[in-house]
């Protein structure tokens, strides 16, 4: 009799303990889901909000697997949105700036949209002058992904899946891709990509948030201080296609190997900056070894916000929002003026399928594409 009472007491204690652990986990990170809107074909589009124990909050929609907002504390503990975007689904459906989206299949440009793979020529959609940009007319940013909450020991996590069929935008092979966003309790937004194909193809997706660490999306990003761990970058021609050359950043305005204010040299008459109308280039990351390395940091002095970028990719495209021109109205009716946001897009080098000296973006049947990129926030 005593033995069974003891057993019941032990079982009850264990049950209470496991419940307490669960509650504790739930109070440190949270996910909520709501309807963002409907597409014209009637499909419902969801919005997931991930919150961590310090109150940092990331909201991501199934449309384009897009980061819609990211509330991060400043040095006084004030939470503000540090990414550009729109208030409604309609903005993302109509918008042309790739705010917060996953772009692909190929992040950045492929010259004339042509490439040769295993002896066969492919022609992709032309959607940027005479070139192919960010996956074409209906790239990963313009399609509906399927979002689902997943278990993660690191924080609140949502997995987005998309099946890109053979021939989409001209690319060979059907690709099954997933992108997992995790908001960790260390204030990191972690993005894990994984993809397989049923036929050899190319793949080079990236994340396209426009950051503004002031937290006021009316300010320019010119006072942000940037460091990129790179001694080389890949110069472009006047249509922004990489020339194939790796050029030294030393003694040029492209040198961010030591922290520099973005506005310091942005308007100089350096030919590359004239072509890009500012910074719009890929930096060749030092010590690329396929592991996740700390590759760049962005600091904004008035807010004290620091964002570090970690990735396992060989390159990073730094785009200083040069094509924002005050014609786009974003969240809270704010007009997005010239250079109010900047992108740090981790990826393989632009136009690499046509540049044999660049790292390869080939994805072979049977292999799995993997990428991990982390945007880590703190106060300095
Ligand atoms: C590219 C820019 C392009 C922009 C589109 C960036 O990733 O580097 O050239 O205009 O995306 O929003």
Secondary-structure map:
Layout: H1 2-28, E1 30-38, E2 44-51, E3 57-61, E4 66-73, E5 79-81, H2 89-94, E6 101-103, E7 109-110, E8 114-117, E9 120-123, E10 132-133, E11 146-150, E12 155-164, E13 175-184, E14 188-197, E15 201-202, E16 206-208, E17 225-228, E18 230-234, E19 247-248, E20 260-261, H3 271-276, E21 280-285, E22 293-300, E23 305-311, E24 315-319, E25 328-329, E26 335-336, E27 343-347, E28 362-363, E29 369-379
Antiparallel strand pairs: 1-2, 2-3, 3-4, 4-5, 6-16, 7-10, 8-9, 11-12, 12-13, 13-14, 14-29, 15-28, 17-20, 17-22, 18-19, 18-21, 21-24, 22-23, 23-29, 24-27, 25-26
The chain binds beta-D-glucopyranose (BGC).
Residues 97-98, 108, 240, 280, 317, 319, 323, 343, 345 line the site of beta-D-glucopyranose.
CATH class: Mainly Beta
**What is the alpha-carbon Rg in Å?**
22 Å
* Number of contiguous helices: 3
Q: Share of helix among residues?
A: 10-25%
């Amino acid at each position: 009799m005593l033995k069974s009472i003891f057993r019941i007491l032990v079982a009850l204690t264990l049950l209470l303990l496991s419940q307490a652990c669960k509650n504790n986990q739930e109070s440190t990170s949270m996910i909520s889901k709501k309807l963002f809107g409907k597409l014209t074909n009637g499909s419902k589009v969801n919005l997931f909000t991930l919150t961590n124990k310090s109150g940092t909050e990331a909201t991501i929609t199934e449309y384009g697997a897009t980061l819609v907002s990211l509330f991060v504390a400043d040095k006084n503990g004030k939470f503000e949105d540090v990414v550009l975007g729109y208030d409604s689904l309609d903005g993302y459906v109509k918008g042309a700036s790739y705010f917060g989206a996953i772009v692909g299949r190929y992040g950045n440009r492929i010259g004339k949209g042509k490439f040769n793979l295993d002896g066969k020529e492919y022609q992709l959609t032309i959607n940027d002058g005479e070139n192919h940009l960010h996956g074409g007319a209906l790239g990963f940013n313009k399609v509906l992904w399927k979002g689902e909450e997943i278990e993660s020991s690191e924080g609140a996590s949502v997995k987005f899946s998309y099946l890109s069929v053979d021939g989409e935008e001209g690319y060979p092979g059907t690709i099954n891709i997933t992108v997992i966003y995790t908001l960790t309790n260390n204030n990191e937004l972690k993005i894990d990509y994984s993809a397989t194909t049923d036929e050899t193809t190319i793949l080079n997706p990236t994340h396209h948030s426009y950051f503004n660490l002031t937290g006021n999306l009316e300010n320019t990003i010119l006072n942000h201080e940037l460091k990129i761990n790179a001694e080389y970058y890949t110069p472009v021609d006047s249509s922004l296609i990489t020339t194939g050359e790796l050029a030294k950043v030393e003694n040029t305005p492209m040198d961010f190997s030591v922290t520099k204010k973005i506005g310091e040299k942005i308007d100089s008459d350096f030919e590359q900056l004239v072509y890009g109308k500012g910074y719009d280039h890929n930096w060749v990351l030092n010590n690329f070894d396929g592991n996740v390395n700390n590759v760049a940091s962005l600091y904004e002095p008035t807010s004290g916000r620091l964002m570090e970028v970690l990735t396992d990719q060989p390159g990073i495209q730094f785009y200083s929002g040069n094509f924002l021109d005050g014609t786009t109205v974003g969240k809270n009716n704010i007009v997005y003026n010239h250079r109010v946001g900047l992108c740090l897009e981790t990826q393989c080098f632009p136009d690499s399928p046509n540049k044999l000296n660049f790292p390869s973006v080939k994805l072979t049947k049977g292999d799995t594409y993997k990428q991990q990129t982390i945007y880590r926030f703190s106060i300095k």
